[in-house]
Amino acid sequence: MANEEDDPIIQEIDVFLARSLLEKLYLFQYPIRPASMTYDDVTHLSAKIKPKQQKVELEMAIDTLNPNYCRSKGEQIALNVDGTCTDETSTYSSKLMDKQTFCSSQAASNVSRYAAAVYKKGELHLTPLHGILQLRPSFTYLDKADAKHREREAANEGGDSSQDEAEDDVKQITVRFSRPETEQARQRRVQSYEFLQKRQAEEHWVHLHYYGLKDSRSEHERQYLFSQGHGLAENTELIKSPSEYLMMLMPPSVEEENDKPVAPSNVLSMAQLRTLPLADQIKILMKNVKVMPFANLMSLLGSGTDSTAVLRCVQQVALLVQGNWVVKSDVLYPKDTSSPHSGVPAEVLCRGRDFVMWKFTQDRWVVRKEVAAVTKLCPEDVKDFLEHMSVARINKGWEFMLPYDEDFVKKHPDIVQRQHMLWMGIQAKLEKVYNLLKEHLAPKKQEAQSAHPLLVSGEQRVNMAKAKVKQNYGQLEKEFQRQKAEMKSNDSSAKTDVPNIRIKEEPVSAEEPMDTSGYEGLNNGLVNGLHTAQGPTDPVNGHLPGGCMDRVAQELKAFVSSTFKKQFVLTLSELKRLFNLHLASLPPGHTLFSGISDKMLQDMVLDTGCKQILVPFPPQTAASPDELKVYALWEAGDTYDQHRQVLLEIFSRNYRVRRNVIQNQLSQECGEDLNKQEVDRVLK
User: Is the pLDDT of residue 323 over 80?
Assistant: First the structure.
């Protein structure tokens, strides 16, 4: 209210909308004129317009008597343009540059928010503009001068040639018949600069008559800038609600159809892309990227997109190859198109590309010569297929560009099964078309694959090892029971035949013996926890006398206690690693080399005052079972025992907790406010 009082309304003006010159009124923007061409003495010699293109050309006279006009320069320009002869086609009949042409260009594509205003007797009359044109000097006379110069040079160099010379100068002419123009080629031709220039030149000029500023006809036309009737019936456009009036002043930006791309391409921005339906977004992305994991596709579509709807749409434009989505061939090569290299129709290209995709479903490597021999396509087309989905490796072939997406295959087995059935159908069609032999259908043998080793990640190696262990577990268990029975039946022969092998006998439980295979380099020649150079205290299945067992328990308890006082929280996997490092540092013949199982180690951890923390890890975690077993020292005898116990209870309810939640819980349970350094120390 205070601002309104400081800025009072001085006058209210009635606004009227004049419609007499609607779609006829243009605004011309002239350039800065030279001193020899002022507003007062300019004479418009001629004017013409192309209405469809809204293009105007004005021819204006130059005052050659003005003292600022350089006469010698004007004569030189006229001589260069017209030469020495003067006729009707001459640009400058006075042998002096006495006029100049101005050509227009559109200053704005959308002029719906612009109007010309006239103020008269307390009334403001508005007339909408139909176009805003900027006038710039046209230098076509220089092109004419260059053409005259080339003609003169050609006339000087050439001479009159005789009839005999014309007959001798015979050249062979090659006649070529062009193929029928495809739809894609026609679209490219229509969008070319040459075609647009030719189309603009086809429109004829409409010559206009220019009336000066003080002419009676100009005075009469200016009256149309005023509203002819002041009644409300003719000005209903100005009777609007505030929101409608604001929308009229600032309409939403709507691009014209000619500004939009004719077809989606890789120049389409992400903002424009997300305005399209989901199916069109996926089709455009797959058509441009060609090969994409499902996770990347979801990230490009933005947050909040339904994965089920994306899966439904992506199957319409792509096929699953090694867990990744590859765009379908008929999307890249629509019907009635042809190859830009060989002119082969789209149907043949689709079959050849489908063969390449099918080969990548069988193996990660494809040989270009094999594809060319089967498909009978030109090398350029085959190279295009391979570049869409693979990378060339020197002396090896073409490798599929993305790694196998095992996560997608595990999460969506129904999609994988459906895609497998589709590939079976495609394989049947390819067999009929290409008469594929068994060597093409069967995957490569192991010997052939060994020549091109695959790059396997560490996680894949672990999974392969686990699968192999599960396969061999039954056989190894039978072999172990047989050896155990033989040693029990013939104790003496076991002592003489197998002096250096110790078999640990564990209680019947689900616990596995501690795996030390990963630390063979640290064991200094250990076999099953024993030095090969030292004999056991008791060679009967690893059992030790009572006194020796007490010493083993004491040594193990000392190791566990010292370790947890340093680290406080350890997983079973990390504890086993530290124990193997401790064994490697011991001298040969130490009591701990008698063989320590996982169960013995875990029991000793619990006996030393530690507790197992059942952390609720997520079910999809990739951690091993030993990494999921977490042990913590419950009482260390310091001032932070209570804080540590509260913190461990928090993590027993959730595996991921925010810092502020931890700090609030510690304050409530312990009854004191901890500063940042104390909380950091407890967390550390």
Answer: yes
